[in-house]
């Protein structure tokens, strides 16, 4: 079962995780904005430096890159954000309740929400959005997560402020799957034939804390506060996403007070050690960085060969070379991040063991190719260490740096151009949201891996309602995948946000994966 809402995040590694250090604009100060570092007056503009250009075709159906989703989060609202079973943040919905048999979920909606154009938000907008997301011709990023056992969820309006979701079969990941989808206005998009390329995307109308104001290609996006925001009028009048591709320029802009927030590399943290005007805040996104084998390659079909390669790799050395210390990246041992439900590290860790690697190789001399994203500095460093590690056991590893788009296209097809590759993902909380990476025949199974036992365990875990039994299933699943030695978890790296020390309300706004802030309306300046 495909979970396309997270598939874009797997692909996102090629664009989003290319350089963890996000960048900002051309370094000029926002007109009319006084830096809090040089003025005692309260700021009315928050400038966030970003490395990529979201473009002017932002829409809730097809937008799937980090910066596009940050824009979506500012303008639109979801029913709720599912951060864990114990951490569900409600926005347009007041509640979402499953039936006793877990086949229906009922959402009660807020009655005090208006679209940015003043029109009332109702259940019609919710039904319309989910129906558009389910239409295959729309290419919606979340369509896969709304398909259960090959059939779509049924979305019905009960009354103006109640929506019922009916599943074709039980799925214990449904609460997460039905959330995190942003709602679009029916009165704006109804009848639109091509949502992805609609001219209406250039002037988005949402329910979120900020209204879209202006887009300058390659320069910036500007938003102004929504006075009628249902969770309270934002404290900051204007938000600017300033675009710049050079991390050094971005870092200087932050140091000068020309921007207020920037995602930085671990190697740039030391630049702010003695800067009282900037606070560095590492936080967990649940990202797993990994190396995987291409099972389309004949060279790596032997499990002992794969295990030998894994024992020859020094995980700690790879992490230190790419992320400096465990303060910014922890060792990963499972396909699940630590924050996921039923995570366990009680698996074969393939700890560094040169003698064991040589024994498993049995004197074989191999020539292998490792593909990675060429302009990803973290993957570059990891690849070099891996090359050195494998040389010590008689394996020649050729490093193949590729354009991210070309690499992603290659991963989608079965091929033998390379034997191994580096990648990473931000997926979800429930283990079932990871199934698309490992289930036989899934378009997101870039390893082209197939194990009937893995397929069976994912199917069992999805429908098991007993928590203890479900935990046993997913613990066995984690052990099975790691024991197959097709997937080598390397690290859970953190995103490092550097912010103006005068920025407050960050805890209330919530630091979350991909979007950075769960609700920017809570931010303010001293």
Report on this structure:
The chain has 526 residues and is of the alpha+beta class. The protein has helices at residues 4-15, 66-75, 123-134, 174-177, 186-189, 247-255, 303-312, 315-323, 354-361, 377-391, 404-411, 452-463, 467-483, 506-509; strands at 45-50, 80-84, 87-90, 93-98, 104-109, 147-148, 151-152, 154-159, 162-166, 210-216, 220-225, 238-243, 261-264, 278-284, 287-293, 329-331, 366-373, 395-402, 420-426, 487-500, 503-504, 511-512, 516-517, 524-525. 25% of the residues lie in helices and 24% in strands. The strands form six sheets. Strands 1, 10, 11, 12, 13, 14, 15, 16, 17, 18, 19 and 20 form a twelve-stranded mixed beta sheet that branches. A hairpin with a 2-residue loop joins strand 8 (154-159) and strand 9 (162-166). The chain is globular. The termini are far apart.
Features:
526 residues, alpha+beta, Dipeptide-binding Protein, domain 1, Dipeptide-binding Protein, domain 3, twelve-stranded mixed beta sheet, four-stranded antiparallel beta sheet, 24 strands, 25% helix, globular, disordered N terminus
Short description:
The protein contains 14 helices and 24 strands. With 526 residues, the protein is α+β, with helices and mostly antiparallel strands. Among the domains are: 77-205, Dipeptide-binding Protein, domain 1 (Alpha-Beta Complex); 287-493, Dipeptide-binding Protein, Domain 3 (Dipeptide-binding Protein, domain 3, Roll), CATH 3.10.105.
